[in-house]
Amino acid sequence: MRPKKHKTTGSNDLFRARLDQIINLKHELVLLAGKIDWDWIDGEIAPLYSENGRPGIETRFMIGLLLLKHIYGLSDEGVCERWIHDPYFQFFTGEEFFQHAFPHERSDLSHWRKRLGDKLELLLAESLRVAHEAGALRGQDLKRVTVDTTVQPKAITFPTDAKLLHAAIKGLNRLARRHGVRLRQSYSRVAKAAAMMAGRYAHAKQFRRHQRQLRILRSRLGRIIRDIAARSTASQPCRRRSPSRLAGPRRSARNSSASVVGSFIPSTPRRWSASAKARPPRLTSSA
């Protein structure tokens, strides 16, 4: 259900102190809280809630925590711990009286991020608007934006030998199906299990068993290569692309799990010239 809007009573309490009476009203967080349009953010996030169920947490409280987390570079646990003893944090999130305990669960921040999704761009838009109105950001500053992606997470795994061999087996099976080459056996399940066990053995530092799984992958890959070379007699491009021998990595067992070697090195059989075949054997005289 849509969260209730934030309301301030403006009245005093005999046993609790008002935050606006114990803090400096010229503090940067106090000034920033007065410039942010909380009602606009609440209206943009309202469609993410259903009409039934328990009312959600106040929008200003959660959005304020997310902003404070990124402003001061804190974690979810860190911003919640600091919120308890920092009156400026409490005032920024909309509290009227000083609170001695955190009113919600710390996991609500992660749930809120999942609920917002792409709506987190609203915080960036509101931050730029406030900075432009305050004079901290000029229009010409937005003509060119430099983005540093050196620490941006990527969904890329380390190319170990087992992964490369498994990917080669899957790729050759895919090419065989595309060109209509029927293999005797695809070794898909065997290769998948061997690649999985190779990763587990490498993690457990059981390198002999790890090398055994790599030999299984190399042997199955060699069988597929020879099978494709034998059955693709009519397809010359396919024969040219298929290597005739698999060259494995020449590294120790300890470094094999972290090596990037494992690619295919095509080699051609050794050919003897006609002169070499017709060369007579050398005779040696005995003394």
Unreliable spans: 242-277
The helix fraction, in percent, is: 40-55%
Overall pLDDT level: 77
C-alpha end-to-end distance: 108 Å
Q: What is the string of SSEs from the N terminus onward? A: HHHHHHHHHHHHH
- The secondary-structure class comes to mainly alpha
Taking the sheet with the most strands, its summary is: none
Radius of gyration: 34 Å
- What's the tally of helices? 13
> What percentage of amino acids are in beta strands?
under 5%
Q: What shape does the CA trace take?
A: elongated
What is the topological layout?
Blueprint lengths: L27 H8 L2 H8 L13 H14 L3 H10 L1 H6 L15 H9 L4 H14 L26 H18 L9 H16 L3 H25 L4 H6 L11 H4 L17 H4 L10
What's the gist of this structure?
The protein is mainly α and 287 residues long. 49% of the residues lie in helices and 0% in strands. The chain contains 13 helices and no strands.
Structure description:
- This protein has helices spanning 28-35, 38-45, 59-72, 76-85, 87-92, 108-116, 121-134, 161-178, 188-203, 207-231, 236-241, 253-256, 274-277.
- Helix 8 (161-178) runs antiparallel to helix 9 (188-203), helix 8 (161-178) runs parallel beside helix 10 (207-231) and helix 9 (188-203) packs antiparallel against helix 10 (207-231).
- The chain is built from 13 helices and no strands.
- Residues 242-277 have low confidence and may be disordered.
- 49% of the residues lie in helices and 0% in strands.
- It is mostly helical.
